[in-house]
Amino acid sequence: MLSIKNLHASIDGREILRGIDLEVPTGQVHAIMGPNGSGKSTLSYVLAGREGYDITDGSILFDGEEIVETPAEERAAKGIFLAFQYPLEIPGVATMTFLKAAMNAQRKARGETELTTPDFMRRVKTSAEKLNVTQEMLRRPLNVGFSGGEKKRNEILQMALLEPKLAILDETDSGLDIDALRVVSDGVNALRSPDRSMLVITHYQRLLDHIVPDVVHVMAAGRIVRSGGPELALELEANGYADYVGAAA
Amino acid sequence: MNAELRSLRTEAETALAESFAAARNSLPGSATVKAARERAFAAFEGKGLPHRRTEPWRYTDLRALLRTVPPRAAGAAAATALPADPLPGLDRARIVVVDGVWRPELSDLAGLDGVTVTATERLLAEGDERLGGQAGRLDDAMVALNTALMAGGVAIDVPAGVDINRAVEIAHVTTGAVATYVRNHIWVGAGGSLRVLETFVGADAAYQANVVTEAVIGDRAKVIWAKLQAEAASSVHIGTLAASIGAEAQFDHLTLMTGAALSRSQSFVSFGGEFARAGLFGATMVGGRQHADIMLGVDHAVPNGASRELFKAVMDGRAEGIFQGRIVVRPGAQKTDGRMMTQGLLLSEEATFSVKPELEIFADDVQCAHGATSGQIDEDMLFYLLARGIPRAEAETLLVTAFLAEAIEGLGDEAIGEAFEVVARDWLARRGRMVAP
User: Fold this and answer.
1) What is the mean pLDDT of residues B103-122?
2) How many CB atoms lie within 10 A of CB B292?
């Protein structure tokens, strides 16, 4: 599904990713853990196609296709979804307008017909109920006045509706209390499927109690420095990142 | 030797002087009106066209920008085919004014029971004392020029207590390369209510429209007023609103500017009675080499008035957007509450936005504030939309529409707001086609 080789990326001349190698096979959930400043969020942005980063070396293959030069909107239509650490509040853009624009744009890009309004409404209603996203939230401008938990649930709602092949969850647990974390995790787990891969980026192990990964990678100073099973997350929780920060420096 | 320094007349000023000289005896109006014309032209001639040292016009140097002046419109054009409806789908009565002349046969006055619509010519002939009551207090060369040459337009009179639900539009249409000096009046009596639209469209020609609308909003009256300036691409639009609002009246006004090569829209609102509330909103959308200037003057002459001013402007290409807003709180106008905000959105590197917000406060117990921002499309918001698969042009349209929506919705009239949002989206769609690869 996702194959990253020797990826180097910088911003404003500062190198943040320094040779990432990562394979995420179809149907697997991989976690990336690492200390602050290790480049985790940069990796998520670079995978989603955010402008402003210079990819100085390496490649990103998605379904075997090089996407380093592909614009963000085309990557989304190919099936890459980024759940934002800080979902944007966009005053004046109605949540439903946004959801419909996104779903239909992706369908159009894939050569599919646009959704009818009743079909669209039905899909939103079904997914929203599961995630405890209320009709009142859906009537508001996108994320405006949403609590941290509401914003994250809205991200997972978008993921459910857009049905990506690869979901990148960037610090989805940040700002969530235990109850909100459970709702969000249940929502993510419901979307696990043999055709869908996930890359779960997190600083803390607690999210991985709920979304249990197949593989855990440790990122430090712009590289993957260690990979292992779910037990690696527990080890990090116990010992912290001190070893890796030291090793990378 | 004459010691008075007199700048040389520009070609446009010469043309205006000749135009007035040729028309002064044939322009409509009573002896009083004729005398007012002479005084107004003398005032205009003394100042000449506004230029960059005329402070309220500093960003719109008409002496430099107005190279020539086309001939005055000479009566009703024969045209019966009007340009496309600029607000399709919006139900309203229409008073169609072609080249300054009210054309009842093209108009639709249904739903205006109790309202009187009169041609300005009749007011001029009768020397109606309400003529000039609002415009007369303005010290502005282009208003003076309008007074000197005024011809055409209508007066809408809503008697006290009459509540008109159907919106009424004064639809200004210009059919060729002429100059028009329309004068309109709107009077809403105590406790009356009215929804007004002023629209401006025209044939593809280098015409110049100088329109002045005087309004007197009575005590406790409620008026919603939306102006759409969608003039032809090579035209000049100078529009002025001079309004006074009575005690406990509610006046909401929106100006949407998208047309004309050179445009200036001035709104002067004076609080004549206490506990009145005014909402003044603006949305400008210009591109290419358009120049669009908004001038706002709010005069809190009495205590306990509240005003909200929110003006948004989107500039593309090499367009120049301008906002000047001035809130004056007179001595004794205690408990005035005035808040003015202007925001510019620049869609290209070459576009510019100039702002000059001013507060002049001569009372000590007031709440007043102003703010101004200018920037580009928010990159974080844009990326959020792109990352969901929304193509760039559509994402930009969503964000720009959202930016303008706050001002358009400020008017507080859903039907008019929706019609104006369609105008905004159409502008963005045209822009999208222009920038598409």
Assistant:
1) 95
2) 27
B406–chain A Cβ distance below 8 A for any pair: yes
The angle at the Cα of B216, spanning B212 to B222, to the nearest 5 degrees, equals 115
Q: Give the pLDDT band (50/70/90) at residue A180.
A: confident
* B4 occurs within a structural domain: no
Cβ contacts (< 8 Å) between B389 and chain A: which residues?
Answer: 73, 76-77, 102, 105-106, 109, 162
- Cα(B20)–Cα(B151) distance, integer angstroms: 12
- Picking from A82, A97, A109, the nearest residue to B387 by CB comes out as A82
Is there a contact between B183 and B214 (Cβ–Cβ < 8 Å)? yes
Does the structure show a pLDDT above 80 at A245?
A: no
Q: Is the pLDDT of residue B76 over 80?
A: no
Q: Is the pLDDT of residue B346 over 60?
A: yes
| Confidence (pLDDT) at B34 | 96
Residue of A41, A74, A93, A169 best to disrupt the B interface, most CBs of B under 10 A: A93
What is the ipTM for the molecules in this complex? 0.95
Q: Do B386 and A71 touch (CB under 8 A)?
A: yes
**Predicted pLDDT of residue A18:** 96
Whether residue A90 and residue B387 make contact (CB cut-off 8 A), yes or no, is no
A-facing residues of B in 354-373 (CB < 8 A) are none
Q: What is the pLDDT of residues B187-221, one digit of tens each?
A: 999 999 999 999 999 999 999 999 999 999 999 99
Structural domain includes residue B79: yes
Architecture of domain A2-248: 3-Layer(aba) Sandwich (3.40)
For residue B262, which phi and psi values (nearest 5 degrees)?
-135, 125
pLDDT tens, position by position, B234-292: 999 999 999 999 999 999 999 999 999 999 999 999 999 999 999 999 999 999 999 99
Residues B27-44, mean pLDDT to the nearest whole number: 95
Rounded Cα–Cα distance for residues B435 and A121 (Å) = 33
Residue B22 structural domain: 11-376
Are residues A130 and A138 in contact, defined by beta-carbon separation less than 8 angstroms?
A: no
Q: What is the pLDDT of residues A193-216, one digit of tens each?
A: 999 999 999 988 889 999 999 999
Flag whether B436 is in a domain: no
Which of B373, B382, B384 is the best substitution to test chain A (most A C-beta atoms within 10 A)? B384
Contacts of A50 in chain B (CB under 8 A): 383, 387
State the smallest CA–CA distance between residue A225 and chain B in angstroms.
Answer: 28
Residue of A nearest to B402 (CA): A92
Domain boundaries, chain A: 2-248
Which residue, among A90, A104, A115, would best test binding to B if mutated, counting the most B CBs under 10 Å from its CB?
A90
In a domain, B392, yes or no: no
Q: Do B402 and A91 make contact, defined as CB atoms within 8 angstroms?
A: yes
* Domains held by chain B: number: 1
pLDDT band at B113; cut points 50, 70, 90:
very high
Query: Residue B152: left if φ>0, alpha if ψ -120 to 50, beta else—which one?
Result: left
Q: Do A73 and B391 touch (CB under 8 A)?
A: yes
Cα separation values, B359 from B129, B282, B424, Å: 33, 18, 30
In whole angstroms, give the CA distance from residue B281 to residue B411: 7
- Chain A contact present for B76, CB below 8 A: no
Q: What is the spatial distance between Cα B199 and Cα B255, in angstroms, rounded to a whole number?
A: 10
Q: In chain A, at which residue ranges do the beta strands (DSSP E only) sit?
A: 2-11, 14-24, 29-33, 54-62, 65-66, 80-83, 90-94, 141-142, 166-170, 197-202, 215-220, 223-228
Q: What is the pLDDT of residue B142?
A: 97
> What residues of A are in contact with residue B406 (Cβ under 8 Å)?
91-92
Within an 8 Å CB–CB cutoff, is residue B401 touching chain A?
Answer: yes
